Every structure is written in structure tokens, then in C-alpha cells.
Amino acid sequence: MKVFPIYNEVEACVSKRDTTKNTIYVGTSKKNPYELAKVITTRKEKEVLKFGNVIEFSVSIDGVILKKMWFKNEEGVAGRYIKTFTKMDKLKSI
Asked: How far apart are CA 66 and CA 88, in angstroms?
């Protein structure tokens, strides 16, 4: 019997939903899993004083937002790239 020590449970962004979830499990098999991390990516439209109407994408791990990106909102579609916000440079490896 083949053992899969890592597997992902993905809830994809379908239709008009603006969130996707990826739960990463580790262990000896799918029947003996331990949750390692939950990665969530979101999309939302917001008004920003300096840039106007933007589309913001963010990614979080276990509820902590680590990175955001802003794009010009062009009728509900991400247009020109504006800016990236990140905490990745402040993190240190365990």
C-alpha cells in the first residue's frame, strides 16, 4: 500500500466567490491526518483615498495575513498593479 504523508484539501474559488482555502495535512495517511496549516487567499474591492477603487488580494496562513497586493479596479477586474504589502521580510525561519 502506498502512503501519502502530505495532502491538501482545497476549497477553490468557484463562480463569484472571492476566497479560496487550502488546508495542508501531514501524517501517515489520509485516515491519520494532522493539520499543518490553513492557507487562505481572498479578493476584495475597496476604496483607497490615494488610489481610488482598488482590488486587493491577500494571503494568510493560520489567520495571519502575510501579504497583500493592490490593483486598479477596472470594472471588477484587476488592472494595473499598484502596490505590495508584506510581512515576509520580518519573519525568521524556525
From this structure: 6
Helix (H) or strand (E) holding 66: strand 64-74
Q: Is residue 94 part of a domain?
A: no
Whole-prediction pTM: 0.83
Count of structural domains within the chain = 1
Q: Tell me the C-alpha distance between 40 and 90, whole Å.
A: 20
pLDDT tens, the chain, 94 aa long: 566 788 888 888 766 678 999 999 998 776 778 999 999 999 999 999 999 999 999 999 999 999 999 999 999 899 999 999 998 888 888 8
- The answer to the question of residue 69 being in a domain is yes
